[in-house]
């Protein structure tokens, strides 16, 4: 039998006897692992430490290089504190019996009384105790349905609702619990979300409600709050018209309003979006006929819709605000959110059925005034806000090209800023005092303002004396008004051109045209205060796209009616009325009384303290940055003191 090809080939190439190995006298070096170290970390540490480099698991040093330690597959994590608490401590009782639950005491009494009687009747010879059947408790948000069971016999009572149900239930399904409605009403008045309140409950050893159920109930409650406040603002406008007629106003429907808009986040943020960064705009109108300045109109422009965003992420072609289902957005993403004229027009049209706007005070933005004028068939007077007008004056003075010798020293920029601030406050003080002295007579105010402006120029120019005594309404000629923000040691060297330029800047507030725009001394302070109060329920760091409007309307309801009245209105409208005569009513009355308590003394003390602190800061700044004789050479002549300049002013 012949050899196969494979066998014949092997005979040719295999090692033959007598041949010398090619590796003879050569040392074969095998790879060693003595220097390598292998570690097996826990899963959590493994995930946070390991890096993949060329499909090899490595660890990184602080300089970015690979360490000599190699990683093995991780081992399970060690038990932690959470695992220790996961087990039951006392096996004899259910662990939920040691947690805190919210129950109505009267309901608990009824449960025990009826169960004890029935147990005594059905099992007369049983001496067991009746305990809560915690393993079969039924949770209804913050409320509970409970039953009792005997520790010795098989007796079990019927289920009892240990919570109060709403009165005006409509539609199928179980009635909502008052405590769940009240919880959502309370959350609407705070910046806390459903997730936040669940964390509070867990830290207090309270079994928290289901998050999804809380969100669904929150949506219904906020929609109801919105409708309640819309009706309340309508009643506020009707009441305002009635009061106008009672006091003898020529046209009872005419009102002066102030308006302003705010946004849920900064408008100018070019790092994150090519569009305007704001996504929700809130426009508020307050009446200026009364001292209370009630809010009579609100509009919320919203670009956000979580349902639309979720559908688009799934590949569906949906466009807000026109897609099916609920859409919280009422404007397109491409629309400008900062169009205050559009939002002001919407608010003006919403309130036009009850009132007629005759004067509008804005913050210097002409677009909002144009929107109000567009919504009205008659001419609307446009008034200027004194504070914003003062800021315009301050910017004009700071940007004015005064002579180079007017502000001496290296810190002339700081001096110029303080000078602009002093001019602003001096003009505002003169204007307010003029209205008070002449009882708002605009003709007399216009006649005296040129002399007042000349007195201000002379006062800051170093000649505060007879001009201020003769013409100024707030300065008696003792330099105090001119030195509110300016250092006491600084003297302004004003040329005739500087004086003319300063007078031209002050025309922004003291000219006849400006006096016509500020003849009622109206401002947007109320609207700006309302805008700040909105942040108490909708902080800028939290976005509530679905319930933003409900929280805003709830805050408006509280600002118009007070804390106590707003709570009772909201709870009654939702069928979750509070118990009459209870300690809860006393608490909300006390809270409301404290918020309405006059705090004039506190405010005065706060102003005095703030003024004193400001003067201390200015004095400290002068001590640190000013020394007398900085520009004069001190000659070392023994016996001759430093020469003192004569004070010509």
What attributes does this structure have?
single chain, 649 residues, alpha/beta, Nucleotidyltransferase, domain 5, 5-stranded mixed beta sheet, 3-stranded antiparallel beta sheet, 14 strands, disordered C terminus
Q: Which helices and strands occur, and which strands form pairs?
A:
Layout lengths: L4 H9 L23 E3 L3 H7 L1 E3 L2 E3 L10 E3 L9 H6 L18 H18 L7 E3 L5 E3 L2 E4 L1 E3 L9 E2 L16 H11 L5 H10 L7 H36 L7 E10 L16 E8 L7 E8 L3 H8 L26 H12 L4 E7 L3 H10 L5 E4 L1 H14 L12 H26 L4 H19 L5 H6 L24 H15 L1 H6 L7 H10 L13 H14 L1 H11 L9 H14 L3 H26 L24
Parallel strand pairs: 1-4, 10-13, 13-14
Antiparallel strand pairs: 2-3, 5-8, 6-7, 7-9, 10-11, 11-12
Question: Can you describe what's shown?
Answer:
Helices cover 44% and strands 10% of the residues. The chain contains 21 helices and 14 strands. With 649 residues, it is an alpha/beta fold. It starts with a helix and ends in a 24-residue tail after the last helix. Among the domains are: 97-203, no CATH class; 227-296 and 337-385 and 523-561, Nucleotidyltransferase, domain 5, CATH 3.30.420; 388-517, no CATH class. The strands form 5 sheets. The chain has a 5-stranded mixed beta sheet with strand order 12-11-10-13-14, with helices on both faces. It has a 3-stranded antiparallel beta sheet with strand order 6-7-9, covered by helices on one side. This is Mutator-like transposase domain-containing protein. InterPro entries: Mutator_transp_dom (IPR049012). It comes from Dreissena polymorpha.
